[in-house]
């Protein structure tokens, strides 16, 4: 992996810690509420990146735009899912789009986070298919595996 794997490792570890806090009821959720600022910052990052001035700002721009759109849709529509799996999907999609644009690292991390997000979104269906005991073990310990992967990316894969 390239130098950016530290960045991706921090993102994966942070998402895993958020998931641990939510799954184990350590803190109340709903801390992201300022969607206009996210949209504006995302747009600014994308403009800077696409103009060629700061090419590394493409990933933050895509991510902030996705998060801003998410919070906008949560506030103004009744059908948009308010689920932690959506955050994994946004980070995964941003990494995938960035990987396709820059031909740089992040493809595997994007696929991993997208798959995890889809798994979290469809966790109730997966719980019915696999049984309650298996799904409980996965829900409680998958964040720890994800955290280990993120720490591995930070420390070992410099």
Automatic annotation (TrEMBL):
<protein>
    <recommendedName>
        <fullName>DUF5668 domain-containing protein</fullName>
    </recommendedName>
</protein>
<feature type="transmembrane region" description="Helical">
    <location>
        <begin position="79"/>
        <end position="97"/>
    </location>
</feature>
<feature type="transmembrane region" description="Helical">
    <location>
        <begin position="54"/>
        <end position="73"/>
    </location>
</feature>
<keyword id="KW-0472">Membrane</keyword>
<feature type="transmembrane region" description="Helical">
    <location>
        <begin position="7"/>
        <end position="24"/>
    </location>
</feature>
<feature type="transmembrane region" description="Helical">
    <location>
        <begin position="134"/>
        <end position="155"/>
    </location>
</feature>
<keyword id="KW-1133">Transmembrane helix</keyword>
<keyword id="KW-0812">Transmembrane</keyword>
<feature type="transmembrane region" description="Helical">
    <location>
        <begin position="30"/>
        <end position="47"/>
    </location>
</feature>
<feature type="transmembrane region" description="Helical">
    <location>
        <begin position="104"/>
        <end position="122"/>
    </location>
</feature>
């Amino acid at each position: 992996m390239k130098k950016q794997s530290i960045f991706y490792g921090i993102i994966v570890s942070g998402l895993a810690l958020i998931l641990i806090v939510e799954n184990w009821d350590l803190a109340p959720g709903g801390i992201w509420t300022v969607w206009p600022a996210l949209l504006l910052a995302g747009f600014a990052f994308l403009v800077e990146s696409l103009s060629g001035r700061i090419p590394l700002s493409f990933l933050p721009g895509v991510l902030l735009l996705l998060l801003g759109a998410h919070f906008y849709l949560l506030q103004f529509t009744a059908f948009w899912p308010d689920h932690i799996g959506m955050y994994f999907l946004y980070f995964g999609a941003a990494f995938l789009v960035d990987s396709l644009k820059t031909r740089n690292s992040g493809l595997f991390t994007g696929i991993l986070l997208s798959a995890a997000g889809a798994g979290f979104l469809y966790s109730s269906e997966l719980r019915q298919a696999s049984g309650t005991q298996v799904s409980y073990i996965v829900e409680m310990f998958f964040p720890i595996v994800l955290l280990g992967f993120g720490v591995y990316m930070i420390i070992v894969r410099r």
